[in-house]
User: What shape does this take?
Amino acid sequence: MAKKRIGILTSGGDCPGLNATIRGVAKACFEKMGTDSVQIVGIQNGYYGLINNIARDMDPSEFSGILTQGGTILGTKRQPFKMMSVIEEDNVDKVKAMKDTYKAQKLDCLLTLGGNGTHKTANLLSEEGLNVIGLPKTIDNDIFGTDVTFGFHTAVDTATDVIDRLHTTAASHSRILMVEIMGNKAGWLTLYSGIAGGADIIIIPEIPYDTDKVVAALSKRSAAGKTFSIVAVAEGAFDVAEAQMKKKERAKKRLEEGITTATARLAAQVQKGTGIETRVCTPGHMLRGGSPSAYDRILATKFGVRAAELIADGKYGYSVAMINGAIGENKLKDVAGKTKFVDPDCSYVRTAKNIGVSFGD
Ligand code: F6P
Assistant: This one.
């Protein structure tokens, strides 16, 4: 009997746990269906590899020793969803090309490990008739329909470590230290690491901040004898005035005013308003690096096993998820194109507020 050919790709920004998930899927498929009945086909650099037919049959040995490895052994690339159906200068019909590769590689199904953009393209391919299963990765934790994405908790640990380290230097120099944490649309990573790291102020996109209130909260701490403060700011944060604007309008205004990031602007405003020396720390891509935490290794393995079960059952058009604490799946069409935002009234925000953390609102 011909082997079941399972294509696998990682797309979008990388995160810890991608390799652990690849390993989980492969090992579970071998276990469930037999090594002789399964061929894993690794597609290089995400949808770019699918468009350009850059793929290879992988040896089972390639899935050993990668549980702890950060990044992705398959490589990844950003391939914006909004351009997928647009024919550009190269004249390539990308959707057709992806379907052609699927056919040329004789795939029985395709696993896409990625975030929101990846899921939108996965849904498109599913609607085009391919057998697709999504697996939710991102340090942003903003994929709709799953309690958690793999990569998130490792990034929370890393960001928390950054904040811990900022405490000692902020205290030594009696400064305000502002840390900009990745998360363009959603503030999950800033919220979790802000609480875990003991930040005094947490600024997230879901709660537009009032600069005067941030300054007032920091001045109050100073008046109470606190010699330093830590402010955790999400990369995608904006103030109350910007909250009234459309994304493009906001970006245009910032460009005109020479503002690079909300964090840099807020730091300058805070230094002026409080009279306290204020510095910015941007860990950036460090938050995406390193070995997955124990939590993420387990989550990745559980997600991988569920994906293998879906393949064995011939259940396609789904994205594996953690739903109310249990492993399950959502229909791709129900989650693609939606974002999971922080509810400003959720228990995490309320917990932080209950211990005196300001969100600048
Ligand atoms: O993958 C998510 C993410 O890390 C976001 O938090 C961040 O805004 C973005 O990716 C950065 O993307 P890039 O690595 O392409 O600059």
In short: The longest helix spans residues 152-173.
